[in-house]
Write a structure and sequence with these properties.
- It comes from Dipteronia sinensis.
- This is DUF4283 domain-containing protein.
- The protein is an alpha+beta fold and 237 residues long.
- It folds into 2 domains: 27-119, Alpha-Beta Plaits; 124-222, Alpha-Beta Plaits.
- 25% of the residues lie in helices and 25% in strands.
- The chain has helices at 3-11, 15-18, 27-38, 54-63, 87-96, 141-149, 160-165, and strands at 40-45, 70-74, 79-84, 100-101, 104-109, 124-132, 153-158, 169-177, 185-188, 197-203.
Length: 237
């Protein structure tokens, strides 16, 4: 039932019905509900098309490595609820993304309060982002975090991967707003001399992306911005 249906039902309530005493949920039932919510993620498949409800459930159930399994329920639109059995499984799935279905990114929200999806924005997605062309002297965790904050909300910094392959890069895990264009590079005066260093960004597992407006969630052919000449560069995995 969507919000419009609920509004119609509420408006149809008689004065007499509204004056009846309201029920109070048993504390034990409330505790069970809070426990269920604490192990839940709510995700929205970022596509303009309405997805088949069973397809994401079957795909994600098969590829996710949850030790105690995960129960997936379809909600309204392209929104799904993911119920885990323990916090470790939920954390591993969150940190293992970004996740996609049929090339469309899935934006996750941690439910709070009563878990009303009408109050969820689904406007942030976490990516591992590689920052390239970084001088060796500045390949530290603190500087990686500083650079990552220029992109989004930083949750992790990985220096080991770059060191193992001998590259001049760091990886940062950041939550990025889907309402804003993705940044392609960072320009930073690293040593305060006025000399600008340009560092290229490479987003891992980035699939459904528009090269015209630099936003995620749809492809170039679905972009609503006026058409213009674009040089398409394959800078994502």
């Amino acid at each position: 039932m969507n919000s419009e249906d609920l509004a119609m039902l509420c408006s149809a309530l008689s004065i007499k019905e509204k004056e009846r005493p309201a029920g109070t949920l048993d504390p034990n039932l409330k505790e069970k509900g809070e426990r269920l919510l604490s192990l839940c993620l709510v995700g929205k498949v970022f596509t303009n098309k309405l997805v088949n409800k069973d397809a994401p459930i079957n795909v994600l159930t098969s590829i996710w490595r949850a030790n105690e399994g995960v129960e997936i329920k379809a909600l309204e639109g392209n929104v799904f609820a993911f119920y885990f059995k323990n916090t470790e499984d939920r954390k591993n799935i969150q940190s293992g993304g970004s996740w996609t279905f049929d090339r469309a990114i899935i934006a996750f929200e941690e439910p709070y309060g009563t878990g009303d999806i009408a109050h969820m924005n689904f406007n942030k997605v976490e990516f591992w982002v590689q920052i390239h062309n970084l001088p060796l002297f500045y390949m530290t965790e603190d500087i990686g975090a500083f650079l990552g904050k220029m992109i989004g909300e930083v949750s992790d910094v990985d220096l080991l991967t770059a060191k193992n392959v001998g590259g001049r890069s760091v990886r940062v895990r950041v939550a990025i707003s889907t309402d804003e264009p993705l940044m392609r590079s960072l320009r930073v005066d690293l040593i305060g001399t006025g000399t600008i260093t340009t560092m290229l960004l490479r987003y891992e597992r980035l699939q459904d992306y528009c090269f015209k407006c630099s936003r995620v969630g749809y492809s170039l052919r679905d972009c609503v911005e006026p058409r213009k000449q674009i040089q398409q560069k394959q800078w994502q995995d």
